Amino acid sequence: MTSEPTLELQPPIPRVKFLGRSWYKRGVAYWLKRIRFTILFVAIAVFPVMIVAAFFSVVAHDAKSWIRVALLLAGVIVVCWSLAAGFRSVSRSIQEENTLLTEGLIPSAAASAQRTGIGGGLGLGVAAYGGSALAGGILMIGQLFVVGWLIAIAVKTFRRFTGPEEIRAVVAAREWYRQHPEVPNERRPKQFRQ
Predict the structure, then answer these.
(1) In this model, does residue 115 exceed pLDDT 50?
(2) Looking at the domain assignment, is residue 23 inside a domain?
């Protein structure tokens, strides 16, 4: 009595942060999670946009003539810088993701830069929560610097993949299917068909 080897029809499916294992088939559950993810980032971006709009509204109506012009000009410059820096960061992230898709590698510089920014924001947040009026004012003015980054991240959620973790999982599954050509095409999820 010998048992015939069974054909393994799918690769190991790791859990991806925010998506679970839904990334593999990209069905309704996957797209609902992606929509929720996008709505979350859009909602997060709305608050700083409202603060920036309020800043410009107050300056435009309440400041004196030359002060108004100087503050509006400074605000526009800072918001434009924020948008440029945010979209430049997203562009680099997209390049890293494309590198990961083609070569399976991803640079680690982006992760260290992200940790630095989180640390700075955490310090200001704790100071503002502790009751420091100066830190609270800095946080409000800081929205001018943050708004572009948040808008860029919200736009990035419309990309094909949510980030490096999902890409690594897809690349690993593609490689598994490449090594197992005996798995029929109709038994594979659409994104892994040949």
Answers:
(1) no
(2) no
Count how many domains the chain has. Answer: 1
Which pLDDT tens digit goes with each residue over 128-159? 566 666 766 677 777 888 888 888 888 888 88
Q: By C-alpha distance, which of 158, 153, 163, 159 is closest to 41?
A: 153
109-129 vs 133-156: helix crossing angle, rounded to 10? 140
Helix-strand-coil split of the chain, %, nearest 5: 75, 0, 25
d(CA 50, CA 48): 5
Amino acid at 19: L
What 106-110 contacts at long range (C-beta under 8 Å, 24+ apart), as own/partner pairs, is 106/164, 106/168
145 in any annotated domain = yes
What residues make up the domain containing 89? 28-192
What is the C-alpha separation between 55 and 47, in angstroms, rounded? 12
User: Tokens standing for 41?
Assistant: 């980032």
